Amino acid sequence: MFYHLSHSSTEDTAFTLLTRALGQGWRVMVRGDDGTLARLDEALWTLSDDSFLPHGREGGPHDAAQPVLLGTGAIGNGANCLMVVGNAPFDPEEAAPLDRLWVLFDGLDDRALARARDQWRAVVGAGVTAQYWSEEGGRWEKKAERSASS
């Protein structure tokens, strides 16, 4: 699922998606660059006044036990979902066995948009169905869905 951010921040969108994922009983690896992960780490503790999202940063003694693990490397917590933020890379082959792959990208950044288009083609080329979500109208709408056979 590709999320074209144009109104919401990465932190707000990730918080919403991660809350839903944990509600489904899913485990998530969030892969990003250090700066984006630092902002997201802070947001997961503070975005909601009445709760926080349980998570940890990669490299701690309890990585495997984290329901949400923030890191730069391979999935380290047995996650069945991967969220890619910032400039983080991923291999489209990683998506095939997962319940979810979320790619969050800044739709106002031309380079991020070009990278997301390349990632979209790679995911579909790897035989994984991809959905494109946009918030251009101020709310999330599915704009496209494509599978390898389309």
Question: Can you give keywords for this protein?
Answer:
8-stranded mixed beta sheet, 4 helices, alpha/beta, Rossmann fold, 8 strands, 150 residues, 24% strand
List strands and helices in order, with pairings:
Layout: E1 2-5, H1 10-23, E2 28-31, H2 34-46, E3 56-57, E4 68-71, E5 81-84, H3 92-95, E6 100-106, H4 110-125, E7 130-134, E8 141-146
> What is the H/E string?
EHEHEEEHEHEE
Level of helix content? 25-40%
CATH first level: Alpha Beta
**Alpha-beta content class:** alpha/beta
The first-to-last residue Cα distance is 16 Å
CATH architecture: 3-Layer(aba) Sandwich
Uncertain spans: none
CATH fold-level topology: Rossmann fold
Number of strands: 8
Strand order of the main beta sheet, please? 3-4-2-5-6-1-7-8
CATH 4th-level superfamily? DNA polymerase III subunit chi
The global form is: globular
Mean pLDDT: 90
Q: Give the DSSP E fraction (strand runs of 2 or more residues).
A: 15-25%
What's the oligomerization state?
single chain
How many discrete domains?
1
Radius of gyration: 15 Å
Count of DSSP-assigned helices: 4
Largest sheet, described in full?
8 strands, mixed
